[in-house]
Specification:
single chain; 455 residues; Rossmann fold; five-stranded parallel beta sheet; 10 strands; globular
């Protein structure tokens, strides 16, 4: 059966045909060594959608470990956290580290790893029942009192690895309690992987000073263009198609450092050319810049359309009659070149100063400072989290980097120019405000929005 394009360029799950080992396999080697150095807390950080979970999955596959994944949110209490981890254990998929046997109770009645084994080991199960009943009874008893003590034996005896995603979403009190409990994993020589965002990397160490020196940190960054280009190349080779180098490069350049965007663009481009499966004979794919830009625009307004309403609400701010469109300027600062996932306050001010807008519409530093301080409150009101202002670092972060791709390609463009489309909505919103003050005519504003110096 021919290989399908949607199975080659995958936007969900772990890629097989387009997997690229960035930094020549350095991250894979480092993570593998950290996991196998028993008792290590492996902290994987980096911007959203940069392949952190994919990296862990790949390494686990290479060294034969099954992932026990817990995804955190602000509703989890500590007991709920450990219960979620235990509920994620699939004993039928595990083998013992010593002899490779499948885990569970075997037909001879000899006890092997499973809920009954765990219940007896932790004192939660003492009575003699049928195998089926003992498994169920033990499971209920263990989950009722879920704690690290129940999970550690599984991780010690079976080919399992605990993987925690989005630990920074936990409430501070719960986070501190759980992280203090993690010393038990270190003492038991059990490695754990924690996945989170870069600017929360220090939370783990801050929560328990005893963990300092026992944490192995791998910090992923936005992907380099050459690595993103190899995604397109590898996928094209799998489909028996040749893509021009310039097309590969342009896709990589506009993927805002994210492999998921590269996958989405490549998939959409191949399907647009009716390449739904691997070609039986070699095929060449020729793409014009105009056509590629059209694919970018379509993807931004299909796969990332959910950002449209969020964008419109954020730029409106908290006050109905704000003097400046400061929030929109903040977003445009991120959309400007070079692409960045974090900006210090001074960099934000510099980028806003470069915007081709009338001086009367340019927000002063006081307005920028005020908007940054109220950004969290605004997003809580809107029920979204696209940016995060961290006062202690004086840095504004993009929490969801795919938002950058939406910012750049939400409006169609034909000639590749960034300026006109990035600032178009800003001037649409400013027309009435500026004209009401008599400083510029509407005609002048429209001329300025095309990037000229008139007015």
């Amino acid at each position: 059966m021919p290989l399908k394009t949607v199975d080659v360029f995958k936007t969900k799950g772990r890629p097989e045909h387009t997997y690229v080992s960035v930094t020549s396999g350095k991250y894979e080697r480092q993570l593998s060594a950290s996991i196998e150095s028993r008792g290590t807390l492996c902290l994987i950080t980096g911007p959203s959608k940069t392949g952190k979970t994919t990296l862990v999955s790949k390494v686990c596959e290479q060294i034969g470990l099954e992932m026990i994944v817990v995804r955190c949110d602000n509703q989890l209490e500590s007991v709920d956290f450990w219960r979620a981890a235990l509920e994620a254990v699939k004993f039928e998929r595990l083998t013992t580290r010593t002899n490779g046997r499948k885990v569970g109770t075997n037909t001879s009645g000899k006890l092997t790893l499973g809920w009954e084994w765990l219940g007896k080991l932790t004192g939660e199960f003492l009575t003699a029942l049928s195998t089926e009943r003992s498994e169920q009874d033990s499971r209920e008893r263990v989950l009722a009192k879920a704690s690290p003590a129940h999970l550690i034996p599984v991780l010690q005896e079976a080919n399992a690895l605990l993987v925690i995603e989005d630990f920074h979403y936990l409430n501070p009190g719960v986070q501190k309690t759980i992280f203090q409990q993690w010393k038990a994993f270190v003492d038991a020589e059990v490695s754990v992987v924690v996945i989170g965002t870069t600017h929360h990397a220090c939370d783990l160490a801050d929560a328990n000073k005893d963990l300092v020196g026992r944490i192995s940190t791998i910090q992923l960054s936005s992907w380099l263009e050459n690595d993103l280009r190899m995604i397109v190349r590898n996928g094209a080779n799998a489909l028996n198609v040749t893509v021009e180098f310039d097309t590969e490069r342009r896709i990589a350049a506009e993927s805002v450092g994210l492999p998921i965007v590269t996958q989405g663009v490549a998939q959409a481009l191949f399907l647009k050319h009716n390449i739904e499966e691997a070609a039986s004979v070699p095929k060449e794919l020729t793409v014009s810049r105009k056509e590629l830009h059209h694919v970018f625009n379509e993807l931004a307004n299909s796969s990332y359309r959910q950002f449209r309403e969020m964008y419109d609400r954020i730029i409106s701010g908290l006050r109905r009659k704000a003097r400046y469109k400061t929030y929109e300027c903040l977003l445009l600062a991120f959309a400007d070149d070079p692409i960045a996932f974090r900006l210090r306050r001074g960099e934000i001010i510099d980028r806003i100063q470069r915007l081709s807008i009338p001086d009367s519409a340019r927000p002063p530093e006081g307005s920028i400072k005020h908007s940054l301080s109220h950004l969290k409150k605004l997003q809580e009101k809107l029920g979204c989290e696209l940016l995060e202002w961290v006062p202690r670092d004086d840095i504004l972060y993009i929490v969801e980097p795919t938002f950058l791709f939406y910012l750049r390609w939400r409006n169609a463009r034909e000639d590749g120019s960034d300026r006109k489309v990035l600032f178009e909505s800003l001037f649409d919103n400013l027309e009435v405000i500026i004209s009401s003050r008599g400083r510029h005519s509407l005609e002048t504003v429209r001329v300025l929005s095309k990037g000229t110096e008139k007015g």
